[in-house]
């Protein structure tokens, strides 16, 4: 179970990091298209893309360890692309995994 707990911790950190970076990227998009300045998107876009890939690995690792259904796993994987969804889903994932840990203990 320590393996699942460490995977959950990594997932939670990455969910918040990717969620914040996505919000910053959204602000950058407003600046790019509203004020014709693409500097913010040029910097934040690749950073978010890299961090999203790390998030995908962490979420997939956790999902496989806890054996999520494929539909739920896909929802968690896509959460890093929809503003605010990674924050909301992180709570659901944490509760679900903790219930799973408690059931097997």
TrEMBL record:
<feature type="transmembrane region" description="Helical">
    <location>
        <begin position="13"/>
        <end position="31"/>
    </location>
</feature>
<keyword id="KW-1133">Transmembrane helix</keyword>
<feature type="transmembrane region" description="Helical">
    <location>
        <begin position="70"/>
        <end position="89"/>
    </location>
</feature>
<dbReference type="Pfam" id="PF12823">
    <property type="entry name" value="DUF3817"/>
</dbReference>
<dbReference type="GO" id="GO:0005886">
    <property type="term" value="C:plasma membrane"/>
</dbReference>
<keyword id="KW-0812">Transmembrane</keyword>
<keyword id="KW-0472">Membrane</keyword>
<feature type="domain" description="DUF3817">
    <location>
        <begin position="8"/>
        <end position="94"/>
    </location>
</feature>
<protein>
    <submittedName>
        <fullName>Membrane protein</fullName>
    </submittedName>
</protein>
<dbReference type="InterPro" id="IPR023845">
    <property type="entry name" value="DUF3817_TM"/>
</dbReference>
<feature type="transmembrane region" description="Helical">
    <location>
        <begin position="43"/>
        <end position="64"/>
    </location>
</feature>
<keyword id="KW-1003">Cell membrane</keyword>
